[in-house]
UniProtKB/TrEMBL annotation:
GO terms for biological process: methylation. Keywords: Methyltransferase, Transferase. The keyword Transferase applies. Residues 30-41, 48-62 have a biased composition (Low complexity). SUPFAM superfamilies: S-adenosyl-L-methionine-dependent methyltransferases. This is S-adenosyl-L-methionine-dependent methyltransferase. Belongs to the methyltransferase superfamily. LaeA methyltransferase family. GO terms for molecular function: methyltransferase activity.
Length: 353
């Protein structure tokens, strides 16, 4: 779909170049995604998730490997309660599907920062480590370190990739000025103190090094009036935001990523925004696939997404949550609603001096 194609960020002459030609840019959001008039109104295309993965870690102490269970879901034990979503296999499959969706949306790109021969790469909140592993393959000469609260990364990984259990909100112990690139993706539901995180990233980067944040903006949008005030999916997302706010997490904090980066001292800050359709309603085959992924990412993960924010934040009983989710599931399959939410990719560079 040419009119909504993702334009690559301009490539700087070198990673140390301060010449970054564009100011903040917005990609593909001015163009409405064209709807497929033949889409089934209650689409329910089959999709089987991969449940074959089995992940353990061997390089960490047993206390960090422990898990906690709540409402039949498994959560991290290290810094218990800090992150409000499960870390069990269904959730890991969902995160891997999210990776596939976002990489597809970005035309196969793992990053937009103009990297040239990076030596050290840090992935904050690496999850299943899927991005870090792909990045290790793209840059075999670089060391890629992924950190996370949960030891859910695979043991069979490229030799240049490693994982560490660590809390990104604690004081970092990485050597100042030691990394070429820091990557943060889908962490808006995790981090409470973004200015502190960005300031620590700034210190840890080499002069000329890049930071990149890739985040979904959880506001359901629509360009053709098919989204109504009482849309159950919109209502659900609003409740997730409220529940997370009650436990100190601002799900829309990512709206300030560009300004926070500038406040932390980063230059050449550049933002791209893409539309991520929800459901199989777009006419364009690529957008239809992305919409299908997105629909299942939410539908498969509905209970996992809801339980933490609704029971911990909004104090709902688990049974009430399950009942409520029945209506949300129905809303997710309604292809008459041409909804989407934005995805923001923001990059910034630490000045050379
Ligand atoms: C939504 S997942 C994103 C995973 C990965 N960034 C990706 O895009 O595939 C969020 C991850 O951040 C981790 N996390 C949450 N809070 C964290 C913290 N304070 N320090 C380190 N990791 C954290 C969670 O354990 C979870 O694996």
């Amino acid at each position: 779909m040419n009119d909504t194609a993702v334009e690559p960020f301009p490539t700087a002459a070198s990673p140390n170049s301060n010449a970054y030609p564009e100011p903040l840019t917005v990609t593909n959001v001015d163009t409405a995604i064209e709807a497929d008039p033949t889409a089934a109104p209650d689409a329910d295309d089959g999709y089987a998730t991969d449940t074959s993965s089995s992940r353990v870690s061997t390089s960490i102490s047993s206390s960090v490997r422990d898990y906690t269970f709540e409402n039949n879901r498994r959560y991290h034990k290290f810094r218990e309660g800090a992150y409000n979503f499960p870390n069990d296999e269904p959730e890991q499959d969902r995160e891997d599907m999210k990776h596939a969706m976002v990489v597809n949306l970005c035309n196969g790109r793992l990053h937009f920062a103009p990297l040239e021969n990076p030596q050290k790469i840090l992935d904050i909140g690496t999850g299943t480590g899927i991005w870090a592993i792909d990045m290790g393959d793209e840059f075999p000469g670089a060391g890629v370190l992924g950190i996370d609260l949960s030891p859910i990364q695979p043991i069979w990984i490229p030799p240049n990739v490693s994982f560490m259990i660590d809390d990104a909100e604690a004081n970092w112990t990485h050597k100042p000025g030691s990394f070429d690139y820091i990557h943060i993706r889908h962490m808006t539901s995790s981090i409470k103190d973004w200015p502190k995180l960005m300031s620590q990233a700034y210190t840890t980067l080499k002069p000329g090094g890049w930071i990149e944040l890739q985040e979904l903006r959880f506001i359901i949008m629509c360009d053709d009036g098919t989204l109504t005030e009482d849309d159950p999916v919109s209502g659900f997302i609003k409740n997730v935001r409220k529940g997370l706010a009650a436990v100190g997490v601002d799900l829309l904090a990512m709206e300030k990523n560009s300004t926070n980066l500038q406040a932390a001292g980063f230059v050449n800050v550049n933002e791209k925004i893409f539309k991520v359709p929800l459901g199989t309603w777009p006419r364009d085959p690529k957008m239809k696939t992305i919409g299908l992924y997105n629909q299942y990412i939410i539908e498969d993960g509905l209970q996992g997404i809801a339980m933490g924010p609704f029971t911990r934040g909004l104090q709902w009983a688990p049974e009430a949550v399950e009942l409520y989710l029945m209506g949300v599931r129905k809303g997710l399959r309604n292809s008459r609603v041409h909804s989407y939410y934005p995805f923001h990719a923001v990059i910034g560079q630490k000045p050379l001096s």
